[in-house]
Amino acid sequence: MPGVPKSQGCQSCKLRKIKCDETWPKCLHCQTSRLICPGPAQLFKFVDHSFPVPGKKKHVRASSPRGQGAGGAWHNLRLQRAHSSGIRGGGRRTPESLSDQSPSPKAVSPTPDELSCMRLISHLEGGLQKITHLGLTFVLKLPMRIQSSACLRDSVELFCSGLTDFQQPEPKRDLMLLPEYGKALRSLRLALTNDEALKAETLAAIALMERASDLFDRQGKKFNIHSRAAIQMMKQRGPTNNDDELDVAVCNDLYGMEMSGWSVQRGGIPPKTTEWKEALERAKSTHRKIVKGDNLAMSDLETLAECCRNLNALISEFQNTSRQSFKSKPNANAAARNGQVNDMEAAIAKTIQMLLEYALEEGAMIVVNDPDGIVGKRYDFTDPMLCQLYLVVLFLHLVPLHILYETDRVLHGTSDNDLHARLRSVAVEAWMCIPYIRSTNWLAGRFPEAPLYATYEVANSTEKEYILDMVQYLDKNSGRLPPSRAAQSAYVLKKAKILMGRDSESFYF
């Protein structure tokens, strides 16, 4: 019969799995072991024994909502054993201590949005606090907006992965070969096909991908597809939402990035019919906005691009004329071109003087004595974007001066001393910005290098070494500069000729 013992041997002998001699009141084994013999086993099975069992721990059974009975008792016993086995220390636990002790809560795994946010914050705290000059002011606004956009989260992952790989001495893969790049593109495609297409988070994701492809590319490639996409999206979205800090920051950074580009093809803005004089006049209001720190508009970007477009057209014309070596009516062509170039140079010089006086008056630019510099003085700026603007307009001034200088040398065989002095004065203005650029201590961002290239030919030997040191400093993370000093000098000189339209093997665009 199930549950009925086969013999009446004592419980102690059954636990030890030995045969009980059943000599009552004490069996022989219990007597020799000096144990209390429980006596003969009953012919029915007890649910709970009222006598102690030697060698067996007695567990406290707490009440259970499952109810009373064998099933409820066994369930409580399993819970009690599981709980007591997880307690360290080896000491005895009273029923009160067992009931008071609660299990520790399980750690909650962070979500992908939280992981991206923490990774971005660690990069910001680890050396990217001064990132305005990188065109990444809007990144400071991203940690609180990552959770609301999947494409922004994936773009942040791409930027962080690219930055981590860029900091290594030898990156293993190109940015576009990273798996995060394909994932960011897929998320962006999904966002552009639903109601997130015109949100500030989507625009920030495109801008972040543009910055990653521009900053972390060591192969010298240029992928401006994201830049064109960002400009096109800004046109479709309309005016900037001044109540949204992220919207304002990302639009301003995109304007600044395009302002530093100079090239018509890179800007991606369709050509206009505005004359360069009108464009330059309208650019004065944009300069004042930048000096005062006001938000820029799309029209401001088009105004600056219009000035660059006319300048680029002038350089292309000069380049084509130089290739012909002035064989066909050189004096007539040079005279007609020089008249237009003189007018443009005078207008640009007037604009620069206006910008400089206004910035000094507003305190946005400060002249500081610098005994260690080659000039003896330096400029300090309240905003790195203002330094970018000043270098841009200085480059705009250097280009027509170089055209006039080269034309005069080709026609007359000698260089004009007045033009050389004017070139030197503009070059000194650019060199006064170099100490400020070094003081920003950036990681990967590129300040406009074209002004440094354009001043290399008019510098003396000491100044040339200073320019090469600065170019090498700007290239410390990119690794595009040749290792030897002679090769670096040839590299900078060739860059200058390309920018001025004087390189016979390269086109300006």
UniProtKB/TrEMBL annotation:
<dbReference type="InterPro" id="IPR001138">
    <property type="entry name" value="Zn2Cys6_DnaBD"/>
</dbReference>
<feature type="region of interest" description="Disordered">
    <location>
        <begin position="55"/>
        <end position="112"/>
    </location>
</feature>
<dbReference type="InterPro" id="IPR036864">
    <property type="entry name" value="Zn2-C6_fun-type_DNA-bd_sf"/>
</dbReference>
<dbReference type="InterPro" id="IPR053178">
    <property type="entry name" value="Osmoadaptation_assoc"/>
</dbReference>
<dbReference type="GO" id="GO:0000981">
    <property type="term" value="F:DNA-binding transcription factor activity, RNA polymerase II-specific"/>
</dbReference>
<dbReference type="Pfam" id="PF00172">
    <property type="entry name" value="Zn_clus"/>
</dbReference>
<feature type="domain" description="Zn(2)-C6 fungal-type">
    <location>
        <begin position="9"/>
        <end position="37"/>
    </location>
</feature>
<protein>
    <recommendedName>
        <fullName>Zn(2)-C6 fungal-type domain-containing protein</fullName>
    </recommendedName>
</protein>
<dbReference type="GO" id="GO:0008270">
    <property type="term" value="F:zinc ion binding"/>
</dbReference>
<keyword id="KW-0539">Nucleus</keyword>
